[in-house]
Write a structure and sequence with these properties.
208 residues, alpha+beta, 33% helix
Length: 208
């Protein structure tokens, strides 16, 4: 198996393949089961597009960098393109959010460790705060974002909120970078940008 491949369980069946194919497979399976959520998913998930970037090269030039790697599937006769240029944790985050949108049990999807026996946790437990007991910390924190109930680590919550808000209000992106100091035009996930000049708040960061 290639290093980028993974094993996972979806609705009780085992699969193996590249991470991008896994993400597309889960989205296709869930949306095929919940056709009523296709429009909502296209509106709320910036990793999805009704434009088939595999065929429309001109539109691809203007698309998000998430679509540098992409797959296309057909739901009820409609072609949907999914961008898969994310790290593994980001892919799992998108998958959890789609399970939530569809009202399905997120435990129906699990990534399997290399030894075929250990299920990888879907998110890291947040640090324990004075307002959170140990039991709550292990489960993550619950919150609502644009009417959708979510449960994740604190870092994942912050990422999801930034991505959802800025996807809906792209005109605020420059303001957010300039004033919030929690977003940057610099890709600090690249080792060449992680020198002494990297702001401390980006020691843990991800792309969106």
């Amino acid at each position: 198996m290639h290093l980028a491949d993974c094993k996972y369980v979806l609705f009780g069946r085992g699969f193996a393949g590249p991470q991008g194919k896994m993400m597309a497979h889960v989205f296709e399976e869930l949306l095929s089961r919940h056709l009523e959520q296709v429009e909502s998913a296209l509106e709320q998930f910036s990793c999805l597009s009704a434009v088939d970037y595999g065929q429309d090269v001109q539109s691809l030039q203007l698309a998000s960098s998430a679509f540098l790697n992409k797959r296309t599937f057909v739901i009820d006769g409609r072609r949907i393109c999914i961008g898969t240029s994310y790290g593994m944790k980001q892919k799992q985050s998108w998958i959890r959010r789609l399970f939530s949108l569809c009202g399905e049990d997120p435990h129906q999807f699990q990534v399997v460790d290399k030894d075929d026996s250990t299920l990888i946790e879907e998110y890291d437990a947040p640090r324990v705060s004075v307002n959170m007991n140990k039991k709550e910390a292990k489960k993550g924190i619950r919150y609502r974002l644009f009417g959708q109930s979510q449960e994740s680590s604190q870092a994942e919550m912050m990422y999801c909120a930034f991505e959802d808000i800025l996807s809906r209000k792209p005109e605020l992106l420059e303001w957010a970078v300039e004033h919030l100091h929690r977003a940057s035009w610099t890709d600090f996930t690249l080792w060449e940008n992680q020198g002494n000049g990297m702001p401390s708040q980006f020691k843990s960061c991800r792309l969106m």
